[in-house]
Amino acid sequence: MRAISSRALLGALFLAAAFAPAGAAWAQVRLAPSPVMEARIAAEQHAEILRRFGGEYRDPELTAYVRAVGQALIRAHGSGGYRFNFTVIDAADVFAFTQGGGYVYVSRGMLALANSEDELAAVLAHELVHVFSRHGAQRDAMRRELGNPDLADADILNAFTRDQELEADALSIPILIAAGYDPFAQGRFLNLVRWHDEVSITSGTSRVRDETDVTHPALIERAELATGMARELFVDMVPPAGPAGGFPGPAYLESGSDAYDPAPAAGGSLMSVLDGIVFGPRPEAGYVTGNAYYDARRRITFELPPGFHFTYAGRLITAEGPSGASMRFDSYTHRRTFNSDLVDYLGRVAGFRIQMESAQRLEINGLPGALARAMPATGSTEPRLYLGVVQVTSRTLFRFSFWLPSTLSDAVAESVWQAPLSFRRLSPQEAQALRPLHLQVVTVEPGMTPESLGATMRMLNHPLEWFRMLNDLAPGEALTPGRQVKVVVP
């Protein structure tokens, strides 16, 4: 590590001590497996980790870039005796994590957000701290100590894990500085992840991140801590003479500008390796385009009625509509051949009586289906329940449930039938023709604006907000000719 003043070093050590576990649990931490054993266990679990999280993203240039940035951090800090293994996961979700022993995983969804090598370095530095501090081994040791924890013991473990996250954010800052990376990139990137969550939720591509998760601090809290730590430590550190990341030193800090072009440690540039990376879910995982949902693996598609928008598209799909109306779409696979009457089935699903005059058995694009309204209690102000079901195989059903407030007009209420009536199977050729979205790096030319470039991303809901977030553009910020920016293309 490069030269650090005694005051800054003491501050970092004080911080580590503040987060350290105490009592009997800490005694067990000391009995955790050795780093060699951790590495052996992580190597054995590597294949299962890949299977569980979506497999490895096969892009040799991108993977080499991530590894080069990781190695730059390790050269500045020291390896701690670990042999590190960096893997890019083929997942749209934004995450990074470690397995003990030096196995570091980062999703392509996380990489797609980065706008500089500094921000990628910030992600990796956070994960390296988890490895160097042996956080995983400490948690495992504490779990063994607690056995089958009661509520109070679970609170101890959760607080312990939460403190580890804050510690990893804070102690990543000296590593970034030692490697010549912008120490403020950690806080900046955490705020970008928070912005991504907001845009994803608005667009219906993600659930609300649980900021009440007792094991992970809120992103805003993490960003504030990381920024404060950077401000505290950087002014006391001797600036790197020949930094790997090219951070320009005190003059940059004093200027207040965040517009600089670092000399990359990894060779090439981050934008060059992000150009062409898959963005968002792959078609076989199911994805939203405007008001339509496509699933290449199950070969199905349907469209929402006017006025509705997706709020989440995963294994369970939800949507919202006018005046608080909502929809749920899911599938059900029977253990044996399904022989029940579909209208009777809707009655059982609803849990109360079907309005038989509304029930229809019909063919929906060549598939057996049924539609029905559930009967609310007399004088009830409870939402009306509109139901639809389509049978695609002898065992598999796809189900629509609409909850419609009593204040919604009958005309709007009846329009919800458009969703189940639009349901159809995709042909093998249609499913095969579906292609994932990609990032494309564009060099800004005179006359280009966020609005004009955002308008090219028609396949995304709220495209302008996606464009601003992906390129970390402040409200009203203009584009400078020559700047490289990311757009999303088919």
Structure description:
The protein is an alpha+beta fold. It has three domains: 6-276, no CATH class; 283-432, Protein Transport Mog1p, Chain A, CATH 3.40.1000.10; 436-489, Roll (Membrane-bound Lytic Murein Transglycosylase D, Chain A). Helices cover 42% and strands 19% of the residues. Strands 8-9-10-14-13-12-11 form a seven-stranded antiparallel beta sheet. The chain has a four-stranded antiparallel beta sheet with strand order 5-6-7-15. The longest helix is centred in the middle third of the chain and has 28 residues, at 151-178. Mean pLDDT is 82; it is low at 1-31, 208-215 and 248-264.
Keywords:
19% strand, single chain, 42% helix, 3 domains, 490 residues, disordered N terminus, four-stranded antiparallel β-sheet, Protein Transport Mog1p, Chain A, Membrane-bound Lytic Murein Transglycosylase D, Chain A, seven-stranded antiparallel β-sheet, globular, alpha+beta
In short:
The protein is of the alpha+beta class.
Count of helical stretches: 18
Extract low-pLDDT stretches.
1-31, 208-215, 248-264
Give the total of beta strands.
17
Helix content: 40-55%
Distance between the termini: 44 Å
Write the layout of secondary structure elements.
Blueprint: H1 6-19, H2 23-29, H3 35-53, H4 60-77, E1 85-89, E2 96-99, E3 103-107, H5 108-113, H6 117-132, H7 135-146, H8 151-178, H9 185-203, H10 219-234, H11 250-255, H12 270-274, E4 278-279, E5 287-289, E6 292-295, E7 300-303, E8 309-313, E9 317-320, E10 326-333, H13 342-350, E11 354-364, E12 367-374, E13 384-391, E14 396-404, H14 410-414, H15 418-422, E15 424-425, H16 428-433, E16 437-443, H17 450-454, H18 463-470, E17 484-489
